[in-house]
Amino acid sequence: MFNRLANLLKGFLSLFISGLEKSNPRALIEAEKENLRQQIGRFNESLASHAGFVERLMRQVKNLESQERDLAAKAAAHVKAGNRQVAGQYALQLRTVKEQLEENRGQLEAAEETFKKLVKSRDVAVRDAQAKIESLKRLLSETEMMEAQAELQEMAQGMITEIGGSGDTLNRVEEYLTERRDQAAGRARVAATSIDTSQVDLREAEQEALADQALAEFTAAYGLEMPAGEAPEGEAAESETPPAPPLKEMGPQLGEG
Which of 113, 135, 182, 242 has the lowest CB atom count within 10 Å? Predict the structure, then answer.
């Protein structure tokens, strides 16, 4: 019973986590990048340990090579001196050193080869992981862009369907405004037919007559003459007669008795 309940809880938890992963792919990519950095750090630590082992083998090989040269020189010197027993001891030590040197050289060569392979494997793995991460980032960007385009297209399609459909709000508003415009035009036309234009014409004629009279009085008072073609109609005949001679001044005239 408890096992079944535990499996059920694990299933629900797995579904929940899967839903979070699907809704947050960018977070998964960042987590993988951090995981890659940690793995590279651990691998480099192991690689450093192996490199230390290689350095120790190199130092041992150098020490054994030095011992080999020293033992060979001592054995040769005792052989020349006729010390057969001592020369034999040095020769025996020289054999042991040569065996160790040969073994260490083999280990060093293998360790160097392993180190190169590990470095190459690390670089290849890192490049592959980085390429995969970059590919996922590009795929995420393309996915988000395509989702945005699809959403915009769906919105545009919905707008076309809602705005362009028959009986929609904009069409009703257009009908209301057209009806109001026609009613206003009809009212204006009816009002125009009820205006009495005779009073307007009479008032205009009176204003013109008063203006002509005032102009005639002004020209007469100041002794002015209207240019030809601009005199008032009432003054046309009078302007054609010559002006009267000036009156003589009152009083005796010069030369008269």
Answer: 242
Look up the pTM and report it.
0.46
Per residue in 216-239, pLDDT tens?
A: 887 888 777 766 554 445 444 444
CA atoms within 13 A on the CB side of 86: 12
Q: How far is CA 251 from the centre of its chain?
A: 109
Q: Using H for helix, E for strand and C for coil, what is the string for 122-151?
A: HHHHHHHHHHHHHHHHHHHHHHHHHHHHHH
Within 10 Å of residue 94's Cβ, how many Cβ atoms?
Answer: 19
* Inter-CA distances, 164 with 158, 168, 171, 178, 236, Å: 10, 7, 9, 19, 74
Contact 106, 60 (CB under 8 A): no
Q: How far is CA 113 from CA 18, 77, 119, 156, 242, in A?
A: 43, 39, 10, 64, 141
Cβ proximity of 86 and 78 under 8 Å = yes
